[in-house]
Amino acid sequence: MDGRLYAGGEDYEKEFDPKDYLETYYAFDSGTMAENEILKFNLENLFQTFTAGGVCGNLLIDIGTGPTIYQLLSACEVFSEIITSDYSEQNLRELEKWLRKEPGAYDWSPAAKYVCELEGDRHRWQEKEARLRKTITRLLKCDVTQPHPLGSAQVPPADCVLTLLTLESACPSVDAYRAAVRGLVGLLKPGGHLVTMVALRSQHYMVGPKKFFGLHLERETVESALQEAGCQVLRCDYRPISYSEACSKNEGICFVVACKGSSV
C-alpha cells in the first residue's frame, strides 16, 4: 500500500486498475466470504427488482458501470436496450473486451450461472450472456459530478437508471452526492425508476495496493436525497454487512428502488 488516499476524477482515471478491482471484489466463490456475500446480495436484489418487482421498460441506463456486467444480468431480460457508462476509459475498454469476447476478458460465467439459477435454469447461462451482449447498445463516458452526467450524449428519457457503488466513490461531499442524485433523476422519464446500491458509512476501498476515497453516507441520507430529487422510495433493503477489512472500510449496505414522480 502506498499510503496515499486517491479520490475521484483524474485520480480515478489514472490510478484505478480494473483488473485489480475485479479480482478483489468479484472473484465469486473463490473470493473472500464478505465480498461474495455482498455480490450475491446484489444479484438477488436485482433479480427481485427486475422480475417480481416489475421494474422494466425500453431503456435502462447504467451509470458508473465500471468494468462489470453482473448488475445487468437480470435487467437484460426485461429491457430492450441498455446503455452503459463510466468515467474511466480503462473501465469502458475492459467492458468492451467482454462484449467482444476478446482474449483476457473477465469470466462472468459464475455470476451468470448464479442468476440463471435464481431464474430457474442454471444451464442457460450462455444464452443469458448472449442476450446481454445484444442488449447493451452503447458505451458512454459519464461524470456524476456534473449536472448532465452523460455530457452532450443524446439519450432519450430512461425507464430505469441503475447505479451501484458509484456515487459514494465519485462524490467528495454529501452536498455533491445530493446533486448527483438530482442529475440521475433528470435522466428518467416520469414514473421511471432509480435503482441503487450504496456502501454505507464508507471511508475508503482498496484496488490493488491503492486506497480510494469513500464518502460517509447514512441510510437516511440516501433516502432523503432521493425524496428531495422528486422520487418516492419504494424499497430499501438494508443489511448490517460490510466488505472485508482488507478490502474496504464501511459499515452496512443498502439496496434502494425509487420511482420518479410525474411532476418532476
From TrEMBL:
Coiled coil: none annotated. Transmembrane segments: none annotated. GO terms for biological process: methylation. Keywords: Methyltransferase, S-adenosyl-L-methionine, Transferase. S-adenosyl-L-methionine binds at residues 21, 26, 70, 86, 91, 143-144. Belongs to the class I-like SAM-binding methyltransferase superfamily. NNMT/PNMT/TEMT family. This is Indolethylamine N-methyltransferase.
